[in-house]
């Protein structure tokens, strides 16, 4: 094969791959621009702070959904992040190669692959059916459970790269293990733990399936975590499939808010971990 | 240093140790509980329905007949199709990224891939439902139906919401997973091997093809399986664009017909289900999905373990 | 009779970003001879040979100036394809790098297959010829299908040489080819280098001054990116003109 045609083949491959990359990226821009264009028309202070109007009526807003998302995410993080970090500490600092350690690691990895709707069904069976009513607690439980493998993996990984010299220095100073782990290892690894938690938070902000039969939805301000609660995600789903023009428009508005939250967290994380793809080999 | 006696430090040490182990055990317990609970709650369905859930094709709530075969097929076909289409695209992205892209393009590309992965599935859903569905229906499905609609696979009518659309949306969602894994693998091709190729006068494509990809083959495969797992478990985007109907595949094999997946069935019906057999059947479906995705995940990890063992030789 | 020079290096300078690693190197290299490049550790010598097969420029931030004339054609000329240069000037690396996903035979003919040679019989006979010429045939003829990485280090290095030779290059560059090998393999390789010079020019980087003396016809001493002295090996080792050269050869530094 003459050199020229090998060069041409190389060029062709380059352009084909470029084309494929462009094809994959087009949806990203399309989705974001659609969300922005459709959602921005309905954004207003009233929209963001008032309760939804009943079906069929125009007006009202998504105030309770925004509030609800924040509450449920906070609750989920309250239990998901600590348990995740503790599990990460266990995997990195204690019983690294023991059988129990390997079982835990295996289970954490499996948990990461469980479909979100299964978490919802689990929370439904565990809490909703037992308590006989829909409750935001069940939703926060499911979402927290989803956070655990993400936070645990991120924590474990950032603790594993802490140089052993530092641990040995601490041992030599007579510092007990628990203090060593917290004040030495964890404080160095806290960047990774933080970004892992942020990413987990962003992830559950978008998860809808686990909430569909736990926290459900509500047209009122959240007044008790033991009751159904509105969230942005469920609102978007309900309103989008309703077919009612004004509600679909509101769904776009809520989508815009949700996308802004998720994208800003992701950009913040990227800023915090600037070394990611430095572009050199 | 504190003047507490060693005893107190020991106590704190042990407390912390138990706390840490306790949390880990909690995770193990919860995981097992998922299985136990799902099995328990699906018992009413198992005893009433038996094997029918897996092979039956009629789902009739009123008469308590729960055959989920169309849903199972919907899940498998849409996931497999999406993954199959995503693989060449992801490969192309990865090759462009590692071999041809200038620095700035690499940075931009990696940001875009991350963002694609970060977009919540319900957003994919609303976009698919209200923007893509009418476009696909009028500009892709209808023309195809007009020209080759005699082939059963492409028969009309052209429903926008269909297994076809669901597969497309799933493809977009799976691409970030497969491409980022492939990029990592191709980037870690040992440079002596690449240099060996270059010194023989190879082009970049020839280097990737003869050394890069063979080296990364197993890893890419495990990444593909991971993507498949994601596609199998995807709920919201699929629920909003697949049409939720049992038309496919037994009333028509056309990919332009609405269909159902396990996830869309559960998402759509669990809220309103009151009959224990109905609820049980839905939970049984969740159990089936769980088992499938766990097997897929396990396979992916087993392959990765084999790779790392191989590299130690 | 004046022998035509195979390779003429004219004012070659090279940079890694802002750092200059080669300073106006000029050498005239005759055909069918062995040239040893000696000098203390540093990137000068490796960079030099990577400028000769145009691999230096692949590193981000790398820059080259000057001319390198192969048979009177500047390999850095705009019209010259770098890939073509690499086919005419082959390279063997410090650590043997056979392709582990290819068999021994496929390794030897890897470069030829890229050029489009497909005929299996032809490829097989070329592989046999080249393996014989590096003295590997008898050792591996029963395991030709095994992976290129499954043989010993010394054998791998000879395989890499066979691979480079299969391209029928005019010059072969070797970057400390025996530094990762045991003494027995080293001896075999030095023998091979002596054999090769009847066909092509060999440039070999070595840290082992003794090896340079044993193996080469000409020696170049490179220090801190500059060519300190270049001449017939006999002359360099018996009566070096530059005091730095003498100090290096007698082991007083480096």
Automatic annotation (TrEMBL), chain A:
One of its GO terms (biological process) is phosphate ion transmembrane transport. The chain crosses the membrane at residues 12-45, 65-91, 103-127, 133-152, 251-269. Keywords: Cell membrane, Membrane, Phosphate transport, Transmembrane, Transmembrane helix, Transport. GO terms for cellular component: plasma membrane. Residues 66-273 form the ABC transmembrane type-1 domain. It is a multi-pass membrane protein. It is found in: Cell membrane. Its main location: membrane. It comes from the Archaea. One of its GO terms (molecular function) is phosphate transmembrane transporter activity. Belongs to the binding-protein-dependent transport system permease family. CysTW subfamily. This is Phosphate transport system permease protein PstA. It comes from Candidatus Methanomethylicus mesodigestus.
TrEMBL record, chain B:
Signal peptide: none annotated. It holds the Pfam family BPD_transp_1. Gene3D superfamilies: MetI-like. It is a multi-pass membrane protein. Residues 72-300 form the ABC transmembrane type-1 domain. The keyword Lipid biosynthesis does not apply. InterPro entries: MetI-like (IPR000515), MetI-like_sf (IPR035906), Phosphate_PstC (IPR011864), Phosphate_Transport_Permease (IPR051124). GO terms for cellular component: plasma membrane. PANTHER family: PHOSPHATE TRANSPORT SYSTEM PERMEASE PROTEIN PST (PTHR30425), PHOSPHATE TRANSPORT SYSTEM PERMEASE PROTEIN PSTC (PTHR30425:SF1). This is Phosphate transport system permease protein. The lineage of its organism: Archaea, Thermoproteota, Methanosuratincolia, Candidatus Methanomethylicales, Candidatus Methanomethylicaceae.
